[in-house]
Amino acid sequence: MLGLTIEAVRPLDAAAMNQARELQARLTKPAGSLGELEELSVRLAGLTAVCPPPLLDSAQLAIFAGDHGVHAQGVTPWPQEVTAQMVANFLAGGAAVNAFARQTGVAVTVVDIGVAADLPPAPGLVSAKVRAGTRDMTVEPAMTRAEAQAALEVGIQTAHAMIDGGARVLLTGDMGIGNTTASAALISAFTRRDPGVVTGYGTGIDAPTHLRKVEVIRQALALHGPSWGDDAASDPVAVLATIGGLEHAGLAGFILGAASRRVPVILDGVIAAAAALTAAAIAPSSRDAMIAGHQSVEPGASVALSQLELNPLLDLGLRLGEGTGAVLAYPIVAGAVRVLHEMATFDSAGVAAKVEE
Amino acid sequence: MLGLTIEAVRPLDAAAMNQARELQARLTKPAGSLGELEELSVRLAGLTAVCPPPLLDSAQLAIFAGDHGVHAQGVTPWPQEVTAQMVANFLAGGAAVNAFARQTGVAVTVVDIGVAADLPPAPGLVSAKVRAGTRDMTVEPAMTRAEAQAALEVGIQTAHAMIDGGARVLLTGDMGIGNTTASAALISAFTRRDPGVVTGYGTGIDAPTHLRKVEVIRQALALHGPSWGDDAASDPVAVLATIGGLEHAGLAGFILGAASRRVPVILDGVIAAAAALTAAAIAPSSRDAMIAGHQSVEPGASVALSQLELNPLLDLGLRLGEGTGAVLAYPIVAGAVRVLHEMATFDSAGVAAKVEE
């Protein structure tokens, strides 16, 4: 499935992009006055290979939840059981992302891809556990290659099922105590930047914990770097397996699944950015399906988005994850497409054009 | 009416703000992880003097439309009749702001406060013309003091009528060919910054037109500055009357009307920023009701928001006006309030707190 998905990820359609540029020029507004939204609408035409691209009126958020063996190294003050507790909170509708999703009209699904606890079945929960948390990457590979591939396929299947169900835009969410550590490790590997540069304070750790976190990442990279020849792009699945999280693998698959169906995917914060680098290493054109929802305060997010050449739509100082930044960005993305469907042209509205100077 | 409105603009309620801060600390998320939205929710509690502040589930945009005598000075390549044509476009639902408003669930009203043409009655149009466009401010005062006061009252009445009709948040919109010129003049007067610093390229003018625009503003300020003793804060209504637009007066009144009822008002771009400076000069605490929707590319907007100490929520390179930036920011503002209503607390959700380090 991964191979077929990779093959289906195609470049942007230039003809549809030209049509979108021409349409933007005829709409009743000064040329360029919608700023970044005009560029975004052109890219979405290219992605979907049609102008105007379909209205993004059915939006689905998938929150991939998993635990992390590296939690044992003291990289966060939050107990591991918070992952499962927050999954219950999402399913009960009591988390920040639920409030934002109700505001913006986004449907929320939680995918248990690797929570350490047994989770009872519940509406809104997809049970697709590959294993009950990763192994400690400072000691051994976080996942086997087969586990990483299985998690990638869970992500692809999740995306395809949502699209088959009518979703026109997908949004990434995540939950996993310790997952900013795995994110920073992945970002360091895929961008060749030092762990000290890409490692942040996550949910709010103190300075000694931050130092420990950076050292833990260095240790993991030193242990596993040789297994992929220290060139992450040469074998991205090996990188993902050794230092990633199950939710990173699920998210990378989710992004590839969206890209393979020419459906846009709005990225949340640093966990999504790490998964996005992984997806882009696996299938470079998947980058064209990605929309950076917001600028997380995590330094690794900036480094990753910069390498992907993605400009975040929002910059609100968020560092929560869950998909909150993606959900808040969704109305803007949908608005950018809606303009191409619903705005009048100068001709149709009888609005005079500007006099040439 | 203006006097009573000014008296009703009161400072933020400290007790409600403290309650909001305490509530934020108990919600199921790391402290501070919602960034600017936490501060915003605290301010909205202070504004409305209740915690949580009311859900912002009924949002009303008012687009104040007016023409400008200074158009005769060649400050824009757009014909003046575009103002009336765009009003018709708004009423037909074909403008960018209509597309965004449908996406985000904002109701749109157009207020004809000073369009040069006669506009036939239409659903969604409030006919409240004070005069058919301002006079040319390079030659004489744009409005008489009585006209400026009448336009301020139209704005106040519009806000009060919307709030009486159930609106819980107001959004500013504007339409008026030439209105970035009046905006830059107002911003220069209220911030004491040189016209060259606060004057932008509006809808997209060329360099010679920009030079002329700056010179036109200098000329108007030289002519009228002495009438308010060159101290804009000493008589803001005189400043507004001499160099402002009818839509600026309407918007300033609209902001004061919202603030007097403790209802938040989301500002759009540079026209709203100029009106906001005017409102803050008339009643300083009205600033606390203002939310900067976005960062317009117009330099005057940055200068004005900086003086008002308002951080814009969005920065998307927009320079369209109409209310587009305010409408796109609305779901974020509403989301910030919704969190206080709908999120679980650590206790209620049974989520473990972080271990103290």
UniProtKB/TrEMBL annotation, chains A, B:
Active-site residues from the entry: 322 (proton acceptor)
Molecular function in Gene Ontology: nicotinate-nucleotide-dimethylbenzimidazole phosphoribosyltransferase activity
TM ranges: none
Assigned keywords, A-Z: Cobalamin biosynthesis, Glycosyltransferase, Transferase
Pathway(s) where this gene product acts: Nucleoside biosynthesis; alpha-ribazole biosynthesis; alpha-ribazole from 5,6-dimethylbenzimidazole: step 1/2
Reactions catalysed: 5,6-dimethylbenzimidazole + nicotinate beta-D-ribonucleotide = alpha-ribazole 5'-phosphate + nicotinate + H(+)
Keyword Hydrolase: no
InterPro entries linked to this entry: Nict_dMeBzImd_PRibTrfase (IPR003200), Nict_dMeBzImd_PRibTrfase_bact (IPR017846), Nict_dMeBzImd_PRibTrfase_N (IPR023195), Nict_dMeBzImd_PRibTrfase_sf (IPR036087)
Transferase as UniProt keyword: yes
EC number: 2.4.2.21
Record CDD domains: DMB-PRT_CobT (cd02439)
Pfam families named in the record: DBI_PRT
Function: Catalyzes the synthesis of alpha-ribazole-5'-phosphate from nicotinate mononucleotide (NAMN) and 5,6-dimethylbenzimidazole (DMB).
Similarity comment: Belongs to the CobT family.
Protein's recorded name: Nicotinate-nucleotide--dimethylbenzimidazole phosphoribosyltransferase
Organism: Catellatospora aurea
